[in-house]
Amino acid sequence: MIHSAIGDTLKSFVFVECWSTGDNRFVKQAWAFSCILALSAILCGCGKDGSQNATQEPGASASQAPGQPGQAASGTPAASGALAAVTKAQLPGEAAETLRLIKAGGPFPFGEDGVLFRNSAALLPQHPRGYYHAYTVRTPGSADRGQRRIVCGGPRRQTGDCYYTDDYYASFKRIAE
User: Judging by DSSP bridges, how do beta strands 173-176 and 84-87 pair with one another?
Assistant: First the structure.
């Protein structure tokens, strides 16, 4: 694809150069624009991961920070690549309230609760798009939603496949039943 874009740009160069009379201002501007365009195509097309960037799906506001798959909440890999686990009793009280609201189907304190979580950093087990949804865990004293979230997979109102993060999606702990 890059080669065809470069080829088309080179054809434009040849056309502009052949058409140029040397004094035409429009031709000089077109020539400069073509040079900039060709340079941009070459430089932007050289990255090997450039086409893998994902765009955020409409309606999704939960973003993830980059990290390594299989990292425990401490930032170190868990044994055998599995996520570290936390029991419901070990979670902050606000997380228990969020789990209760998820089971009840709401009402949630924030309009963003329940949005699609894409797992684009692949920190959670891989599932089809639409499997995970993110919910806010209130942070006492915070003026905004804070960094704490619970991400649950599967049908809504079920909490059998949920994960807790206290660092805005940089790491997760699996919530054990």
Answer: parallel
The reported pTM is 0.57
- For residue 40, what pLDDT is reported? 57
CB 106 within 8 A of CB 133: no
54 located within any domain? no
Query: Please, which contacts does 48-55 make with residues 24 or more away whose CB atoms are closer than 8 Å?
Result: 54/118, 54/120
Residues 25 and 85 occupy one common structural domain: no
| Mean pLDDT on 70-76 | 39
- Residue 68 CB contacts under 8 Å (≥ 6 apart), including other chains: 77, 123
67 in a domain, yes or no? no
- Do residues 50 and 128 make contact, with C-beta atoms less than 8 angstroms apart? no
Please state, in angstroms and rounded to a whole number, the distance separating the CA atoms of residues 103 and 160. 10
Residue-range definition of the domain harbouring residue 21: 2-49
Mean pLDDT of the chain: 74
